[in-house]
Every structure is written in C-alpha cells, then in structure tokens.
C-alpha cells in the first residue's frame, strides 16, 4: 500500500539513514528529506575509534549507504546545513541557510555532541566524534611520539589502543580508581587496567586534568607536567537536544518519546538514536543509551511508527569494543544501585570470560563476553527470562547458557 506525504528527517546519521531506508522498504512513496549539518553523507561512528583510526580501514568501510543510494531511492539528501527552528504550528523546519521545509511527519535523529572541557582549545588537542576528527587524530598519531589521553572511558581506551598501534608513547589519566569504573566497577575496570599496562600505556589512575598549556602540555591534578605531541580528550557526550528544546518538546536526559518513539508532546514528531530517552516496555521506565545498536535499530522502528505500523521498541541495549587483542560485547542495562553481585564464567586473568550482573533476586541484568563469542543471544535470553539464576551454574562453563535460559 502506497503512502504519500512529506517525511523530514533531521540528522544525517546512522539512525536517520536507516530510517529513510526503512521508509522506502515499507512502501512509502512520498517525499523523504534527510538533513545533515555535516558535509559527509551518513556514516557509522564505531570505526572512527577503532579500525579507521588505526588505519586498517578506509572511508569505504564507514558509509551507511553507497554514494548513489540516496538518489537511487529518491531521498533528498541535504548536507552541510543545520536545522535551526522547528515551527510545529506551521509543520515546517527552518534551516541555517534561511530556507524552510514543510513536513507531515518529522523524525529527529540529531545524535549527541562531544562533551568539551573549557579552556582546552589549544593546538594539538583533539576530541573524537566526527569523521573529520578521526582524520585529524589519525594524522596526528602517525607523526606523534608522545600522546596524552584524558579520560578512561570507551573513547579514551580505544583511542589509546589506536595510538599504540601507530607506535606512540601513551600516558592516560583518569580520575577514577579504574577505567570504566562508573560503568562496570573496579573488578572489570581492573581488566582494562591490566590490558593497557600490558600494552605499554602509562596509566595514571586517580589523576585528573588541571590545565592544558600551549605546547601542548597537560598539567594534572597532582601537578605533573606531561608534554605531548597530541592530546586526546574523551570525557563523554551529551544528547543534541537544542532543536527539540526550541520546539518546546519534552526534554529530560534526551528527547522524551513513547515506546513507539513518538514525542510525548507532538504526535507528528518522533526521535531515534542517541538523542532519545524512550519509554522501554521491558524495563518499565525511560532509558537513554549511546550505542551503535540503538541507532541501527531505533531508526527503522521510528520509521515504522511514522507509517502507522509501529510496535513497541524494546531492544535490549547492546554494544561492542575492540582494544588490542581484546574483543567484547555487552548486552543489558542497569541503573546505579541495582547490581547486587557480578558472577564470572571463565578466566579474567587470560581475558577470556563472561561477566553477569545480577540483582538481589539473582536475575541477570546484563552480561559481557570478553574474547568469548556467539553468546549474545543466550545472554539476552537470560535477561529477558527474568528468572532467578543459580550462581554456580552461571559460573560453570560446562552448563550451556541456553539451558539456563
């Protein structure tokens, strides 16, 4: 059945591009306008801190679609222009070039913006969010001898691993007692501590950033001076909600949407990807996560809802990381204070294990497999089962996970 009208997507991102693809796949034959403030066509971000940054992958590996896909599928792709105003009464989006675009349905896939530290606009200091950032950082790594990384989160750790692959000497500072401590706690954080130190990183824990002087020279909270050829700052991202706020939509840790990814304040506006904080039927509360799979899956889910074919969006959050010889996948979600115990299956010292996060009733909230493969589906099945688990069986590698689920 054909569907007419004009659907506008603001955010030429993975979520936005996959939403456009889903609209065409579902038979929408109206107008699709995909607007992006970057000059590059939609691309995937995970390679920017992994193989692309290392130099193992070229630009041909990052695109969501081939260059001709948008014209071939009659998608009006407008790049290098930001959307500045949503006029909900007129059903129009105003762009930075002064033009206005009418819409029948509007999807916001504006993603996130990198969190910047004040007074760090110094030559040689880098942030990593866009492909242009990765290009500049990769060029810096190829010529740098000394690199300082600020932040022991995913970008900091993956960036440090990439810099080591280029042969750089790395000092990484992190104010917490372990990398990823706020996400995983000290035990899993210790795995990453040992991993990076084993690969030659000077990892300084409990050490924050005080100042960056021209040079650049990083001044730590302990007063140490760290001269560098390049500095990478990775201290998180924040949802890009400026347009939603201007439009008067509900914003609370992201754009608030229902389980159908529809705005809580406007039935003709939807959101997907990093920028959304969506009601989640499985968890019984709104959640916002900043993962590749969220963008990949929620864009099409929003498209289906825009067409009146939507189903509640209840994907279990998932992400992956690669650092040196460690590959991992994580599935699940938990809020601070919900975890009562972590159960391990395998050998943490060899970095070949599965970790299970349990609540006080021994239900699995999340699982992470490190250098253990083909277990994501049974881990998600354990989570969805909501069954109390026998900790001894969870820890026993001779007990198949599928049997427990």
Which tags fit this structure?
3 domains; 26 strands; five-stranded parallel sheet; globular; 405 residues; FAD/NAD(P)-binding domain; Enolase-like, domain 1; 25% helix; alpha/beta; single chain
Secondary-structure blueprint:
Layout: E1 6-10, H1 14-25, E2 31-36, H2 51-54, H3 69-72, E3 75-79, E4 83-87, E5 92-95, E6 100-102, E7 105-108, E8 112-114, E9 125-126, H4 131-143, E10 146-150, H5 154-165, E11 169-174, H6 181-184, H7 186-198, E12 202-205, E13 209-213, E14 217-220, E15 225-227, E16 230-233, E17 237-239, H8 242-246, E18 255-257, E19 269-271, E20 276-280, E21 285-287, H9 292-306, E22 318-323, E23 326-332, E24 341-347, E25 352-358, E26 364-370, H10 376-385, H11 391-395, H12 401-404
Parallel strand pairs: 1-2, 1-7, 2-3, 7-19, 9-16, 10-11, 10-16, 11-12, 18-20
Antiparallel strand pairs: 4-5, 5-6, 8-17, 13-14, 14-15, 20-21, 22-23, 23-26, 24-25, 25-26
């Amino acid at each position: 059945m054909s569907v007419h009208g004009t659907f506008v997507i603001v955010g030429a991102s993975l979520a936005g591009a996959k939403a456009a693809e889903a609209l065409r796949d579902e038979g929408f034959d109206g107008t699709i306008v995909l607007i992006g403030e970057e000059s590059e066509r939609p691309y995937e971000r995970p390679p920017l801190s992994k193989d692309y940054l290392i130099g193992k992958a070229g630009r041909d590996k990052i695109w969501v679609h081939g260059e001709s896909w948008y014209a071939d599928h009659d998608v009006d792709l407008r790049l290098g222009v930001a959307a500045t105003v949503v006029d909900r009464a007129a059903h129009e989006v105003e762009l930075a070039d002064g033009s206005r675009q009418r819409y029948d349905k509007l999807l916001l896939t504006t993603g996130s913006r990198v969190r910047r530290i004040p007074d760090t606009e110094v030559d040689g200091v880098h942030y990593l969010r866009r492909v242009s950032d990765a290009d500049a950082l990769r060029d810096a790594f190829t010529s740098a001898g000394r690199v300082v990384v600020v932040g022991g989160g995913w970008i900091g750790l993956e960036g440090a691993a990439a810099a080591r692959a280029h042969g750089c000497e790395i000092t990484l500072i992190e104010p917490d007692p372990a990398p990823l401590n706020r996400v995983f706690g000290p035990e899993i954080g210790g795995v990453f501590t040992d991993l990076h130190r084993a690969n030659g990183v000077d990892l300084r824990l409990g050490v924050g950033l005080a100042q960056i002087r021209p040079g650049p020279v990083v001044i730590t909270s302990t007063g140490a001076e760290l001269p560098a050829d390049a500095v990478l700052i990775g201290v998180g991202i924040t949802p890009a909600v400026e347009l939603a706020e201007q439009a008067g939509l509900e914003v609370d840790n992201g754009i608030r949407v229902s389980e159908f990814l529809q705005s809580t304040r406007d039935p003709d506006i939807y959101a997907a990807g990093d920028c959304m904080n969506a009601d989640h039927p499985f968890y019984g509360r709104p959640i916002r996560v900043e993962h590749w799979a969220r963008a990949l899956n929620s864009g099409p889910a929003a498209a289906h809802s825009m067409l009146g074919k939507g189903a509640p969006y209840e994907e279990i959050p998932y992400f992956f990381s690669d650092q040196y010889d460690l590959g991992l996948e994580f599935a699940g979600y938990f809020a601070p204070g919900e975890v009562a115990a972590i159960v391990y299956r395998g050998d943490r010292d060899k970095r070949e294990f599965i970790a299970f996060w349990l609540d006080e009733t021994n239900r699995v909230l999340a699982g992470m497999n490190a250098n253990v493969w083909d277990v994501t589906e049974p881990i998600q099945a354990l989570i969805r089962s909501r069954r109390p688990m026998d900790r001894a069986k969870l820890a026993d590698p001779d007990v198949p996970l599928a049997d427990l689920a």
